[in-house]
## 1
Amino acid sequence: MREKTGILIFSRSTDIECSVKKFDGNQSFFESQKERLENLCSKTGLDTIWYNEHLQVGGNFGERFCNSISSVFSKGYNSLIIIGNDSPQLKYYHLQSSIDSLQSGRVSLGKSFDGGFYLLAIKKQHFNYPEFLNLSWNTSKVSSEIIQLLQTKAKVSFISTLKDVDNQLDFSSLLNFSKQLYTDVILILKRIQKFFDFNFQNPSLFNEKIIFGSFQNKAPPILSRVCRTS
């Protein structure tokens, strides 16, 4: 029997996310993230299951996270790729790499720079609720702890370490990763940081990517606002 794999997006809804993560441009950023994730996940052909605050159950992050995984596994899924909504560098090949790992019997982890992780791909037999619940959630130790736990269950494949966005400093520091970002994120950053110098990359290349949609994300309303304020 073919294994059933799904993508679990564990995140708050856009409005609640913006009320918690208060930084300039947050509404545009999380709206674009939601649309992009929908597009990326649809390309995989896998079921996409969103778990926002209306479906999450628990008194803290760890409980909500583990309960969400347990709930989706109970719906008949044998493997899950779990992601959030705050990693703008996430690309299709990160998802495909995790799919390949699962098909080879491995687990997959994408670490974030703050000590957490933005992607976890596991099979149902790798998930032990009490063990996962006991991890140091919302700390810089959680990625190292989950690696130690996963290595007792299967071979672990690692994908790129990416930046996630929790506050204004995180969002502004995305400028250091500009070549890895989609056009719409760059445009949002340009709009809110009027004095930013776009010498971080060749201006003609930047214009080409906007005009011809090299990043596959046109974002025309944001572009028109940027053009009027430039």
## 2
Amino acid sequence: MKTPFTMLLSLLLMVSLTSSAQNNQVANSTFNGTTASSYVGMVEVGYLYQDNKNNAPNTADSSPTLILFNGYQFHRLFSLGATVGLDFYNQVLVSPVALGIRGTLLTTRVSPTFGVDAGYGTTFLSDESDNIKNKGGWMVNPTLGMRVLAGNNTAFLFNLGYKIQRATTTEPVPWGNNMFITEKHSFKRLSARLGFMF
């Protein structure tokens, strides 16, 4: 079975190979806001970090994350689209589906960027063996970062953000008959992602 990180790298490679066909739709001048509105896509891979206060001191939990953004750029300061992704938390695999906003502040080759994703994290891909039931919840992820134009109608991205994701896990009590324990998760993690724009 593939590890979560191997799955992320495989998806990133697959998207990068298919994006070359779509590069003709978006020029670097579009990224700078000097042409008409057009399609914009982004792929970002990284980690979500959280202090682990329940275990040994000075430790942290980290989980891989992948985000795909497909949208329409109205202006360099405003792109609107949909995001889908995978967040590999220890307790549950969450697949967030959200409305996303992206913006680039400057017309220079290197520019600060911002973004906000808000939506719902589903758990339909999560493993529910041994009668464990997972349920998703709402999600929000504001980010700030940098964009570097790379030629060939692409740009590299780096961003930091703060992701809040709600989820619920229900599992049977080992010693009880038809008794269940429900645990509500509120994941609050620093997000750090690298990616590219096409």
## 3
Amino acid sequence: MSDPATGAGPSANPFTQVPIEITISVGRARPLVRDLLRLQRDAVLPLDRRVDDPVELYVGDKLIARGELTEVEGEEGQLAVRLTEVADLQNGL
């Protein structure tokens, strides 16, 4: 296990190699069930956010960062998130 006092880095901890899944939330919709049942292909479901609003990054239900959607340079059409705010996970957001 790494020791902050000795400066041993996270590479000494085998858990640093475990992948995690991050969920990016771009907004929420709250349609009525009857409206949801009527949705068909090409329907538009309005969200509670605007195109330029920040997105939120979650691990499980824990907010870890906020950012803006962008396109990966050199990869046309590939989405990415540029972080604008990162949570202090040790001391709270």
## 4
Amino acid sequence: MTGNPGGTTVVEWDVGSTGAEQHESFVRLEREIGLLLRRSRAISARLARELHPDLDGAAYGLLALLADGGPLRASDLVARLGLDKSTVSRQVSSLVALGMVDREPDPADGRAQVLRPSAEGAARLSGIREARRARWEADLSGWPADDVATLAELLARLNRIGEAREAQAAPGG
């Protein structure tokens, strides 16, 4: 795959590939990503309980996004995650009530609020992320460093495609 000046991705197949081989590649990709997503949801639920016994898995992801890209408005979270506004609102309220997230006035618009992990939320999240990184390092210890870097780059490219698609699907996008 290569990028072009218009910002879209162009798929380039080997000249020797058949339509059936290409189709089978996408079937396998869908299957493997589906498995990864199911496993990820289960892991997020477990990690959320480690953060706080009353926290659900989806809220864990929201806290991680705030830690990585915050402070953010709730509307930013809706746009980035592609979730329903009421779902995000419920998760934010839960995180605030549990002391994991703080609401602050938006410096750009005092009428609005931005969200950021509280000191406790950031500390708990950092500890869990460090444990996750250590597990990835153990699980992939037999992989060459270049393969790990390639996997990370390919996943980043896939995530950018998903983010662009969500942005286009959003109202006004």
